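hiii, so i know i said id send this last week but things got crazy w the move. better late than never?? heres the sequnce for the chain we talked about at the cafe, plus the structure i predicted for it. fair warning i was half asleep when i ran it
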Amino acid sequence: MDQKSQALGGDAAMHLQDALLASGDVEGFLHALAGYAASAFSRPERAVHCGVHISSRRKASASAASSSQALDLEHIQNSTGDGPQLAAVGDSTIVHIRDMEREERWPLYVKTAVTGGFRSVLVVPLALGDMARGTLTFYAPVSSAFGSDDVASFQLFAGEASKSLRLALTIARCQDARRDLLAALESRTVIGLAAGMIMAQNRCSQDDAFRILREASNARHIKLRDVAASVIAPMAAGTEVRVHFDE
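okay and structure toks below
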């Protein structure tokens, strides 16, 4: 790796780490990533726009871009299921369109790109492993805007972006797991309190109290937690039942 590539990789890693710390979620990081990429690769003689897209089985797909025109192209591909972004993800190789006006694939995408002022497009897959699939797409307003050096630089940048994005996705999964666990604990707390009240009122066992709650839930076709909440509501006096534990 030459000095220029090392400098690009180091600068990208630093900026992306800062963006990851500053962003509140994955979507916020995607916007920061697209904006930084566009700024890093733009030149006085050649503006560059950037779009980024990720999808996974567990979460809805997410897209971001450095401009509204680039974001429109991300949305078109997501809604139609057709475009170079999907081709790059499927083959795990770059897709390089040197002149959009001569491109015959993806008619709607091409028409929108040309209308938006884009002539060159280069799509680079992101290496996200089993966590998700994603791409970085670079746009320029002139044909043949990206040479072999640009392609190498985009691939290097995508490698650094992939590392930061994998970390962002890992953090998001941990946050989701925490929220799910807290919600489960809150439900169990409400159900446990309701069972305790039923045991005291009916002088029955814990198993009998849970059976009464389940039968009420089935008969009324509402969730067990909601039945339990209605049981403890008179005693709770409008206050929210919370789980008390040290994280």
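btw The chain has two domains: 3-175, 182-236. thought thatd interest u
miss u guys!!
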